[in-house]
Amino acid sequence: MYCYNVIEKPLELRNPPKAERHDELKGSEHITALTLSLTLTLKPLQRLLSIHTTITLFSFLLSFSSSLLNTVMSQNKNVSLERSAPQQPRPSNVYVGVGGSDSLCISPKRDHKSENYEDLQLEFNPLVFSSLEQYLPPHMLNLSREVKVQYMRNILLRYLPESERIRIQKHKEYRQKIMLNYPPLHREIYSMDAEKFFTPSFLRAIKENTEESFRSIMAEPCKGIYTFEMLQPRFCEMLVSEVDHFERWVHATKFRIMRPNIMNQYGAVLDDFGLEAMLDRLMSDFIRPMSRVFYSEIGGSSLDSHHGFVVEYGINRDVELGFHVDDSEVSLNICLGDKFSGGELFFRGVRCDEHVNSDIQPVENFDYYHVPGHAILHPGRHRHGARPTTSGNRINLILWCRSSAFRELKKYRRDFSSWCEECKRKKKEKERLLVMATQQELMKREMQSAS
């Protein structure tokens, strides 16, 4: 997550994490968009791997350098699953992996129904395999699940550095240890129960699933920012007490807890103690339908992973939150309570990486006042922060929704004028100057013709 200084002009980054640094990508310009569902779709990798590491993971697999492939394939004599199948001309959309031992299709087979891998103990999140399966060679799609998962696992493990593999395994063990020992207080919130969690108006809008139904429950106080009533009071109370119960358990057992991000010293990652599946449903069944309508240009229709957590502000807690952008395509922020004063969110415009420190335009200033049970939905790249909570305690549920496809495509684009306000402003200015230059040239030619 980027952090910005809200006092200095222009804003300056304070130690942006490696996962967001693009200066490391200069040697990887030839990597193609083939990696769409193979890289940041890896949910457990998204918080642990840098973009550079993820690219390294697949760069050789998906490079189109024929000289490299010819050299590697001539040296590699391993027999693959694919070679064991009857030899036949390779479809034009199939790309051969390193050594020819594995292959993936350039385009996914969207109408193929992927297997469910939830019951398997794997190094990667089961959704990774479900997504990757659509890119398998046609002759593999109807093979047994065991054969397919081994094939995909070989691809993933081959290009994953040993150090990162160890980090992933340790985080997996960390979660498993918590879930084996932590006694939940409210088990009913660990699985989605829409009727008990959400307000009737929100459920009706989701059921109708149209732009009109969504807008009927929403306000849009600032361009691209939507607010609406979402959670029932009882669910808010149970979630707050569950987090409090978890923190008390952590303190009593002296268990090390991972905080939500580098900016918040208080709060908890909900995914770490069993709520990941419920939050997955929240994103896929309730947030993605709305994002598909309102945020299609920033990956809203392809949200495929999340980071869910609770933050706490007030006495003996975090007081405020500095100016920053979220590590998400779409962010959901819901106030859970309690009684408090202050803590308003302030928004200052959507920006791409290049223009994240650009000046704030007057029209971009917007302040949001929290209401318990009410949600605010906004682009993750919308620069924002939180003012000090002056009294009481404020607790918010945050869901960072991410799109691996959008992130991968973004690396090969330079024009983000469809959503970055600074790109849009510069593009309009460039067009204005071009029109002016064209007009001057035409006038010059007319004058020359007249003379």
Automatic annotation (TrEMBL):
One Gene Ontology molecular-function label: dioxygenase activity
Pfam families membership: OGFOD2-like (PF25238)
InterPro entries noted in UniProt: Oxoglu/Fe-dep_dioxygenase_dom, Pro_4_hyd_alph
Domain Fe2OG dioxygenase: start-end pairs: 304-403
Keyword Metal-binding included in the entry's annotation: yes
Organism superkingdom: Eukaryota
Keywords linked to the UniProt accession: Dioxygenase, Iron, Metal-binding, Oxidoreductase
Cofactors named for this entry: L-ascorbate
Protein name: Uncharacterized PKHD-type hydroxylase At1g22950
Organism this protein belongs to: Vigna radiata var. radiata (Mung bean)
Gene: LOC106771112
